[in-house]
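Homework help board

Subject: predicted structure for assignment chain

Our instructor gave us this sequence and asked us to write out the predicted structure in token form, then describe one feature. I got the tokens but I'm not sure how to describe them. Can anyone check?
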Amino acid sequence: MSKEFAASEAVKMVKDGMVLGIGSGRTVEVFLRKLGDRIKNEGLEVYGVPSSYQSHMVAVEVGLMIVDLFEYSELDLCVDGADQIDGDLNCIKGGGGALTREKIVSQASKRFVIIAEERKFVDKLNMPIPIEVIPFAYGYVRRRLSEICNCRLRFGSGKVGPVVTDNGNFIIDCDFGFIENPREIEAQLNSIAGVVENGIFCNVDEVILGCRDGVRILKR
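My token output:
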């Protein structure tokens, strides 16, 4: 139910004619289906820029009009999930491998809102950080990463070999333990040639946490 509460609260933010950045994951799917109910019942026109094939397919199914950043370089609102959130509203994302496109649509939006279950909220980020890497640079990037953290290439369960993102790249998961300065690590990782993007998000405006009996809203 906590996903339902968070998604329902976020759906209230959507207004007729809005252009949304759409994240990925199970909680975002719940959000999209609830938004689809509003589109059907209220006749809303809502446009969306999906960050993954998963969210693209659900958005089409529920009645959003799919657009892209060529047409709309600035989006009204981005709604996404998170794997972990700290007290300063920094997040780790990318468990589903869509972190690069998720970061693009989040930064292209006037307002970036995270919806998540309350259990995702922690004092300090401490889970492995997903990093999207160009395959050509994999060996070099892995060597550089191994100097600063424990890292491993992510392998898929439905195919032989490594996970390949929607952009055709690999994912390396990097364990730094407890993260004291997320912004510093975000910049450090992105300074390595061959790293496309990493899963630290420090640009969140608001977090809606779904609880057992409602929501808890956190703002910067």
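Reply (TA_rk): Your tokens look well-formed. For the description, you could write something like this. The two ends are 26 Å apart (CA to CA). That's the kind of observation they're looking for.
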